[in-house]
TrEMBL record, chains A, B, C:
This is 4-oxalocrotonate tautomerase. Gene3D superfamilies: Macrophage Migration Inhibitory Factor (3.30.429.10). InterPro entries: Tauto_MSAD, Tautomerase/MIF_sf. It holds the Pfam family Tautomerase_2. It comes from Salinisphaera hydrothermalis (strain C41B8).
Amino acid sequence: MPFVNIAILEGHDRDYAQAVADSVNEAAITALDFPADDRYQLIQEYAPHALQLQTRTADRVMLHLVLRSGKTDEQKKAFYRRVTENLAARPGIDPHNVMITMTENNDIDWSFADGKASFLEG
Amino acid sequence: MPFVNIAILEGHDRDYAQAVADSVNEAAITALDFPADDRYQLIQEYAPHALQLQTRTADRVMLHLVLRSGKTDEQKKAFYRRVTENLAARPGIDPHNVMITMTENNDIDWSFADGKASFLEG
Amino acid sequence: MPFVNIAILEGHDRDYAQAVADSVNEAAITALDFPADDRYQLIQEYAPHALQLQTRTADRVMLHLVLRSGKTDEQKKAFYRRVTENLAARPGIDPHNVMITMTENNDIDWSFADGKASFLEG
Protein backbone atom coordinates (compact mmCIF):
# COMPACT_ATOMS: atom_id res chain seq x y z
CA MET A 1 0.00 0.00 0.00
CA PRO A 2 -0.96 2.52 -0.93
CA PHE A 3 -1.94 2.21 -4.60
CA VAL A 4 -1.13 5.61 -6.06
CA ASN A 5 -2.41 7.07 -9.31
CA ILE A 6 -0.43 10.10 -10.40
CA ALA A 7 -1.71 12.41 -13.15
CA ILE A 8 0.83 14.82 -14.63
CA LEU A 9 0.91 17.03 -17.71
CA GLU A 10 2.50 15.72 -20.90
CA GLY A 11 5.57 17.43 -22.30
CA HIS A 12 7.86 16.85 -19.36
CA ASP A 13 10.81 14.46 -19.51
CA ARG A 14 11.25 11.23 -17.66
CA ASP A 15 13.26 12.89 -14.88
CA TYR A 16 10.25 15.06 -14.09
CA ALA A 17 7.97 12.02 -13.87
CA GLN A 18 10.46 10.21 -11.69
CA ALA A 19 10.82 13.25 -9.42
CA VAL A 20 7.05 13.41 -8.95
CA ALA A 21 6.90 9.69 -8.23
CA ASP A 22 9.78 9.89 -5.76
CA SER A 23 8.30 12.89 -3.98
CA VAL A 24 4.94 11.21 -3.62
CA ASN A 25 6.47 7.96 -2.46
CA GLU A 26 8.69 9.60 0.17
CA ALA A 27 5.68 11.44 1.59
CA ALA A 28 3.60 8.25 1.73
CA ILE A 29 6.31 6.32 3.54
CA THR A 30 7.15 9.01 6.07
CA ALA A 31 3.82 10.71 6.75
CA LEU A 32 1.52 7.70 6.36
CA ASP A 33 4.00 5.30 7.94
CA PHE A 34 4.30 2.70 5.20
CA PRO A 35 7.18 0.22 4.84
CA ALA A 36 10.24 1.55 3.04
CA ASP A 37 9.82 -0.88 0.15
CA ASP A 38 6.22 0.10 -0.53
CA ARG A 39 5.84 1.48 -4.02
CA TYR A 40 2.75 0.88 -6.11
CA GLN A 41 2.44 3.74 -8.55
CA LEU A 42 0.90 4.45 -11.92
CA ILE A 43 1.99 7.65 -13.63
CA GLN A 44 -0.19 8.92 -16.45
CA GLU A 45 0.44 11.93 -18.67
CA TYR A 46 -2.38 14.17 -19.87
CA ALA A 47 -2.73 16.98 -22.37
CA PRO A 48 -3.60 20.25 -20.63
CA HIS A 49 -7.27 20.08 -21.66
CA ALA A 50 -7.47 16.53 -20.28
CA LEU A 51 -6.26 17.41 -16.78
CA GLN A 52 -8.79 19.93 -15.56
CA LEU A 53 -8.07 21.30 -12.11
CA GLN A 54 -10.70 24.02 -11.91
CA THR A 55 -9.34 26.80 -14.11
CA ARG A 56 -5.69 26.46 -13.12
CA THR A 57 -3.34 26.56 -16.11
CA ALA A 58 0.07 26.29 -14.45
CA ASP A 59 1.92 23.03 -14.01
CA ARG A 60 -0.25 20.77 -11.89
CA VAL A 61 -0.67 17.29 -10.45
CA MET A 62 -3.67 15.24 -9.38
CA LEU A 63 -3.20 12.26 -7.07
CA HIS A 64 -5.58 9.48 -6.13
CA LEU A 65 -4.56 7.06 -3.40
CA VAL A 66 -6.26 3.80 -2.48
CA LEU A 67 -5.27 2.64 1.00
CA ARG A 68 -6.50 0.44 3.82
CA SER A 69 -8.63 2.10 6.45
CA GLY A 70 -6.81 2.83 9.67
CA LYS A 71 -4.69 5.88 8.99
CA THR A 72 -5.61 8.80 11.24
CA ASP A 73 -6.72 12.24 10.18
CA GLU A 74 -3.44 13.60 11.49
CA GLN A 75 -1.46 11.20 9.32
CA LYS A 76 -3.45 12.20 6.25
CA LYS A 77 -2.98 15.90 7.02
CA ALA A 78 0.74 15.28 7.42
CA PHE A 79 0.77 13.53 4.04
CA TYR A 80 -0.91 16.46 2.31
CA ARG A 81 1.65 18.84 3.77
CA ARG A 82 4.61 16.61 3.07
CA VAL A 83 3.73 15.69 -0.48
CA THR A 84 3.17 19.32 -1.49
CA GLU A 85 6.46 20.33 0.19
CA ASN A 86 8.24 17.52 -1.62
CA LEU A 87 6.74 18.40 -4.99
CA ALA A 88 7.61 22.09 -4.50
CA ALA A 89 11.22 21.10 -3.86
CA ARG A 90 11.40 18.53 -6.65
CA PRO A 91 10.43 18.91 -9.48
CA GLY A 92 9.15 22.36 -8.44
CA ILE A 93 5.34 22.38 -8.50
CA ASP A 94 3.39 25.13 -6.74
CA PRO A 95 1.55 23.59 -3.75
CA HIS A 96 -1.53 25.48 -4.88
CA ASN A 97 -1.70 23.25 -7.96
CA VAL A 98 -1.61 19.85 -6.28
CA MET A 99 -4.93 18.11 -5.77
CA ILE A 100 -5.22 14.89 -3.78
CA THR A 101 -8.01 12.50 -2.93
CA MET A 102 -8.06 9.13 -1.17
CA THR A 103 -10.39 6.15 -0.95
CA GLU A 104 -10.15 3.41 1.63
CA ASN A 105 -10.70 -0.31 1.62
CA ASN A 106 -10.01 -3.31 3.87
CA ASP A 107 -7.50 -6.07 4.61
CA ILE A 108 -9.05 -8.48 2.18
CA ASP A 109 -8.81 -6.02 -0.70
CA TRP A 110 -5.08 -6.37 -1.39
CA SER A 111 -2.96 -8.86 -3.26
CA PHE A 112 0.60 -7.64 -3.78
CA ALA A 113 1.94 -10.83 -5.32
CA ASP A 114 1.47 -14.54 -5.91
CA GLY A 115 -2.32 -14.53 -5.98
CA LYS A 116 -2.68 -14.28 -2.22
CA ALA A 117 -4.73 -11.91 -0.07
CA SER A 118 -1.51 -10.49 1.32
CA PHE A 119 -2.77 -9.19 4.66
CA LEU A 120 -4.69 -12.40 5.43
CA GLU A 121 -2.70 -15.17 3.79
CA GLY A 122 0.78 -13.82 4.45
CA MET B 1 -15.37 17.41 -5.60
CA PRO B 2 -16.09 15.21 -7.30
CA PHE B 3 -12.94 13.71 -8.80
CA VAL B 4 -14.05 12.50 -12.22
CA ASN B 5 -12.29 10.00 -14.44
CA ILE B 6 -13.60 10.06 -17.99
CA ALA B 7 -12.77 7.29 -20.46
CA ILE B 8 -13.48 8.03 -24.13
CA LEU B 9 -12.51 6.38 -27.40
CA GLU B 10 -9.45 7.65 -29.27
CA GLY B 11 -9.87 9.16 -32.71
CA HIS B 12 -12.06 12.05 -31.70
CA ASP B 13 -10.87 15.64 -31.75
CA ARG B 14 -10.33 17.94 -28.83
CA ASP B 15 -13.77 19.52 -29.20
CA TYR B 16 -15.32 16.11 -28.60
CA ALA B 17 -13.27 15.60 -25.44
CA GLN B 18 -14.17 19.06 -24.22
CA ALA B 19 -17.86 18.47 -24.96
CA VAL B 20 -17.81 15.28 -22.91
CA ALA B 21 -16.01 17.02 -20.07
CA ASP B 22 -18.42 19.95 -20.13
CA SER B 23 -21.47 17.69 -20.23
CA VAL B 24 -20.23 15.67 -17.28
CA ASN B 25 -19.32 18.75 -15.31
CA GLU B 26 -22.65 20.47 -15.86
CA ALA B 27 -24.49 17.36 -14.68
CA ALA B 28 -22.32 17.08 -11.56
CA ILE B 29 -22.88 20.70 -10.59
CA THR B 30 -26.62 20.74 -11.20
CA ALA B 31 -27.75 17.24 -10.21
CA LEU B 32 -25.27 16.57 -7.41
CA ASP B 33 -25.32 20.16 -6.18
CA PHE B 34 -21.63 21.00 -6.32
CA PRO B 35 -20.21 24.55 -6.40
CA ALA B 36 -20.06 26.16 -9.84
CA ASP B 37 -16.26 26.27 -9.81
CA ASP B 38 -15.87 22.58 -9.08
CA ARG B 39 -13.99 20.84 -11.84
CA TYR B 40 -11.58 18.01 -11.18
CA GLN B 41 -11.45 15.88 -14.30
CA LEU B 42 -9.10 13.48 -16.00
CA ILE B 43 -9.93 12.55 -19.58
CA GLN B 44 -8.25 9.47 -20.98
CA GLU B 45 -8.52 8.12 -24.53
CA TYR B 46 -8.60 4.41 -25.26
CA ALA B 47 -8.40 2.25 -28.35
CA PRO B 48 -11.66 0.36 -28.94
CA HIS B 49 -10.26 -2.92 -27.62
CA ALA B 50 -9.08 -1.15 -24.47
CA LEU B 51 -12.48 0.26 -23.53
CA GLN B 52 -14.65 -2.81 -23.15
CA LEU B 53 -18.26 -2.06 -22.31
CA GLN B 54 -19.73 -5.53 -22.58
CA THR B 55 -19.98 -6.12 -26.32
CA ARG B 56 -21.02 -2.62 -27.33
CA THR B 57 -19.10 -1.33 -30.33
CA ALA B 58 -20.67 2.10 -30.86
CA ASP B 59 -19.23 5.31 -29.46
CA ARG B 60 -19.14 4.96 -25.69
CA VAL B 61 -18.04 6.53 -22.43
CA MET B 62 -17.16 5.13 -19.01
CA LEU B 63 -17.15 7.44 -15.98
CA HIS B 64 -15.80 6.88 -12.49
CA LEU B 65 -16.53 9.49 -9.84
CA VAL B 66 -14.97 9.73 -6.41
CA LEU B 67 -17.07 11.89 -4.07
CA ARG B 68 -17.69 12.48 -0.40
CA SER B 69 -20.46 10.46 1.20
CA GLY B 70 -23.63 12.41 1.77
CA LYS B 71 -25.30 12.66 -1.62
CA THR B 72 -28.73 11.05 -1.65
CA ASP B 73 -29.90 8.25 -3.89
CA GLU B 74 -32.21 10.73 -5.60
CA GLN B 75 -29.32 13.06 -6.37
CA LYS B 76 -27.32 10.22 -7.84
CA LYS B 77 -30.27 9.07 -9.94
CA ALA B 78 -30.69 12.64 -11.16
CA PHE B 79 -27.02 12.72 -12.09
CA TYR B 80 -27.29 9.54 -14.15
CA ARG B 81 -30.25 10.97 -16.04
CA ARG B 82 -28.72 14.39 -16.52
CA VAL B 83 -25.29 13.25 -17.65
CA THR B 84 -26.71 10.89 -20.25
CA GLU B 85 -29.08 13.60 -21.50
CA ASN B 86 -26.18 16.03 -21.70
CA LEU B 87 -23.93 13.58 -23.54
CA ALA B 88 -26.72 12.74 -25.98
CA ALA B 89 -27.09 16.44 -26.76
CA ARG B 90 -23.37 17.15 -26.90
CA PRO B 91 -21.32 15.51 -28.36
CA GLY B 92 -24.06 13.06 -29.28
CA ILE B 93 -23.53 9.78 -27.45
CA ASP B 94 -26.33 7.21 -27.17
CA PRO B 95 -27.41 7.01 -23.49
CA HIS B 96 -27.31 3.24 -23.84
CA ASN B 97 -23.52 3.44 -24.18
CA VAL B 98 -22.71 5.47 -21.08
CA MET B 99 -21.56 3.52 -18.04
CA ILE B 100 -21.04 5.22 -14.67
CA THR B 101 -19.81 4.13 -11.29
CA MET B 102 -19.06 6.02 -8.07
CA THR B 103 -17.04 5.45 -4.91
CA GLU B 104 -17.36 7.49 -1.75
CA ASN B 105 -14.95 8.73 0.85
CA ASN B 106 -14.91 11.23 3.75
CA ASP B 107 -14.10 14.81 4.68
CA ILE B 108 -10.49 14.05 5.50
CA ASP B 109 -9.87 12.50 2.12
CA TRP B 110 -9.63 15.69 0.07
CA SER B 111 -6.94 18.26 -0.51
CA PHE B 112 -7.78 20.63 -3.35
CA ALA B 113 -4.77 22.91 -2.93
CA ASP B 114 -1.95 24.10 -0.72
CA GLY B 115 -1.37 20.82 1.11
CA LYS B 116 -4.38 21.23 3.37
CA ALA B 117 -7.23 18.85 4.19
CA SER B 118 -9.62 21.28 2.54
CA PHE B 119 -12.83 20.33 4.33
CA LEU B 120 -11.15 20.34 7.77
CA GLU B 121 -8.43 22.97 7.55
CA GLY B 122 -10.23 25.52 5.42
CA MET C 1 -19.84 -5.10 -12.35
CA PRO C 2 -17.07 -5.05 -11.61
CA PHE C 3 -15.39 -1.98 -13.11
CA VAL C 4 -11.86 -3.14 -13.85
CA ASN C 5 -8.83 -0.96 -14.49
CA ILE C 6 -5.96 -2.91 -16.00
CA ALA C 7 -2.44 -1.46 -16.13
CA ILE C 8 0.01 -3.22 -18.45
CA LEU C 9 3.42 -2.36 -19.86
CA GLU C 10 3.67 -0.75 -23.29
CA GLY C 11 5.40 -2.57 -26.10
CA HIS C 12 3.12 -5.56 -26.23
CA ASP C 13 0.75 -6.21 -29.11
CA ARG C 14 -2.99 -6.17 -29.09
CA ASP C 15 -3.22 -9.94 -28.58
CA TYR C 16 -1.33 -9.55 -25.31
CA ALA C 17 -3.73 -6.86 -24.10
CA GLN C 18 -6.70 -8.97 -25.11
CA ALA C 19 -5.27 -12.02 -23.35
CA VAL C 20 -4.85 -10.04 -20.14
CA ALA C 21 -8.38 -8.67 -20.43
CA ASP C 22 -9.83 -12.11 -21.11
CA SER C 23 -7.94 -13.70 -18.24
CA VAL C 24 -9.10 -11.04 -15.81
CA ASN C 25 -12.66 -11.24 -17.03
CA GLU C 26 -12.85 -15.03 -16.78
CA ALA C 27 -11.57 -14.89 -13.21
CA ALA C 28 -14.09 -12.22 -12.24
CA ILE C 29 -17.02 -14.15 -13.67
CA THR C 30 -16.07 -17.51 -12.20
CA ALA C 31 -14.49 -16.64 -8.85
CA LEU C 32 -16.57 -13.58 -7.99
CA ASP C 33 -19.75 -15.01 -9.49
CA PHE C 34 -20.68 -12.27 -11.93
CA PRO C 35 -23.01 -12.71 -14.92
CA ALA C 36 -21.40 -14.09 -18.05
CA ASP C 37 -22.00 -10.87 -19.99
CA ASP C 38 -20.32 -8.65 -17.42
CA ARG C 39 -17.37 -6.86 -18.92
CA TYR C 40 -16.42 -3.34 -17.93
CA GLN C 41 -12.73 -2.94 -18.50
CA LEU C 42 -10.24 -0.18 -19.18
CA ILE C 43 -6.79 -1.26 -20.33
CA GLN C 44 -4.01 1.29 -20.07
CA GLU C 45 -0.41 0.90 -21.20
CA TYR C 46 2.48 2.38 -19.27
CA ALA C 47 6.18 2.87 -19.86
CA PRO C 48 8.26 0.80 -17.41
CA HIS C 49 9.12 3.82 -15.24
CA ALA C 50 5.42 4.71 -15.06
CA LEU C 51 4.27 1.35 -13.69
CA GLN C 52 6.17 1.00 -10.45
CA LEU C 53 5.54 -2.27 -8.64
CA GLN C 54 8.14 -2.00 -5.90
CA THR C 55 11.43 -2.75 -7.65
CA ARG C 56 10.14 -5.50 -9.93
CA THR C 57 11.38 -5.11 -13.50
CA ALA C 58 9.88 -8.17 -15.20
CA ASP C 59 6.60 -8.10 -17.09
CA ARG C 60 3.91 -7.03 -14.65
CA VAL C 61 0.28 -6.06 -14.23
CA MET C 62 -1.61 -3.92 -11.75
CA LEU C 63 -5.37 -4.30 -11.38
CA HIS C 64 -7.89 -2.10 -9.60
CA LEU C 65 -11.47 -3.34 -9.30
CA VAL C 66 -14.48 -1.36 -8.17
CA LEU C 67 -17.33 -3.63 -7.11
CA ARG C 68 -20.45 -3.62 -4.97
CA SER C 69 -20.03 -4.70 -1.38
CA GLY C 70 -21.26 -8.21 -0.68
CA LYS C 71 -18.59 -10.51 -2.04
CA THR C 72 -17.09 -12.71 0.67
CA ASP C 73 -13.45 -12.94 1.64
CA GLU C 74 -13.39 -16.45 0.21
CA GLN C 75 -14.64 -15.21 -3.14
CA LYS C 76 -11.99 -12.50 -3.22
CA LYS C 77 -9.25 -14.98 -2.31
CA ALA C 78 -10.50 -17.27 -5.07
CA PHE C 79 -10.33 -14.34 -7.50
CA TYR C 80 -6.73 -13.57 -6.58
CA ARG C 81 -5.76 -17.19 -7.16
CA ARG C 82 -7.74 -17.55 -10.35
CA VAL C 83 -6.63 -14.34 -12.01
CA THR C 84 -2.95 -15.05 -11.38
CA GLU C 85 -3.36 -18.62 -12.66
CA ASN C 86 -5.11 -17.31 -15.75
CA LEU C 87 -2.49 -14.64 -16.41
CA ALA C 88 0.30 -17.20 -15.98
CA ALA C 89 -1.35 -19.39 -18.58
CA ARG C 90 -2.21 -16.57 -20.97
CA PRO C 91 -0.34 -14.37 -21.82
CA GLY C 92 2.27 -15.81 -19.46
CA ILE C 93 2.85 -13.40 -16.57
CA ASP C 94 4.61 -14.58 -13.40
CA PRO C 95 2.06 -14.59 -10.54
CA HIS C 96 4.66 -12.81 -8.42
CA ASN C 97 4.29 -9.75 -10.63
CA VAL C 98 0.53 -9.29 -10.45
CA MET C 99 -0.75 -6.73 -7.97
CA ILE C 100 -4.47 -6.32 -7.28
CA THR C 101 -6.56 -4.01 -5.14
CA MET C 102 -10.32 -3.52 -4.80
CA THR C 103 -12.67 -0.82 -3.55
CA GLU C 104 -16.32 -1.34 -2.79
CA ASN C 105 -19.43 0.73 -3.21
CA ASN C 106 -23.22 0.27 -3.07
CA ASP C 107 -26.28 -0.50 -5.16
CA ILE C 108 -26.94 3.14 -5.98
CA ASP C 109 -23.45 3.64 -7.34
CA TRP C 110 -23.91 1.91 -10.69
CA SER C 111 -25.41 2.91 -14.00
CA PHE C 112 -24.60 0.47 -16.77
CA ALA C 113 -26.76 2.06 -19.45
CA ASP C 114 -29.57 4.44 -20.26
CA GLY C 115 -29.02 6.86 -17.38
CA LYS C 116 -30.62 4.59 -14.80
CA ALA C 117 -29.37 3.42 -11.41
CA SER C 118 -29.28 -0.11 -12.74
CA PHE C 119 -29.64 -2.03 -9.48
CA LEU C 120 -32.51 0.17 -8.26
CA GLU C 121 -34.35 1.24 -11.38
CA GLY C 122 -34.00 -1.98 -13.37
